[in-house]
Sequence to fold (223 residues):
Amino acid sequence: MAFLGFLLQGCNSSKQITNEPSITTEESTDTGLSDNTYRIQTGDEIEILVWEQPNFNTLTTVSGLGSIAIPLIGELEVTGLTKSELEQNLRRELSEYIKGPIELTVSIRNTERLMVSVFGMVNDPDNYPVVNQTSIFRILSTAGGPTPEANLRKVRVYRNKSNIAADTFDLTKYLESGEMNSSDIMIYPGDIIYITPKENVVREMSEFLRDVVILFGIFRVFN
Fold:
């Protein structure tokens, strides 16, 4: 029992998801979106630095029309592009003004959208900063783990920019099979996770669900 208490205590030790690449909680800091999973949105802040060509250096915000203004080049449509795609477009535009290799750095900043909301039957419902895709189990662990009233057989995930009302997952299947990093249950910035209550709100956990709570504690302590 003492060991179980220690593991459960670990679930509540921090709100920031750890051991995931490119995670930030600071305002106006570079999100490091280099894996091309994130697509530029209205309101994102973009910084462009061109080596030895300071006239093209830009720090701007994506307008409501989905474009940014770059000195000499003019307006450039950027919404929906990945970081790599934007860099390619910039090199093409800059090649009209610069001869030879073009060295540039692109940084994308937006802390407001790089969040995942977790609510329902968890110990610490809140918004958590996440830049890249991450396992739903890691996020739930950061949210303190499920409460005894949690119905892990009907976990709803509202996807960012999805026409579907919600995806419903039976997390017990992934736990039993060990597929806790399955692509099906990856969570992305902007997603919302709702842990539904048990229909009969039974407070006594089964042996399996007790192991689930222990697992979340282990996730928090050792990851």
About this structure: Confidence is low (pLDDT under 50) at residues 1-16, 18-34, 201-205. The domain at 2-19+112-222 is CATH 3.10.560.10 (Outer membrane lipoprotein wza fold like). The first strand starts at residue 45 and ends at 50.
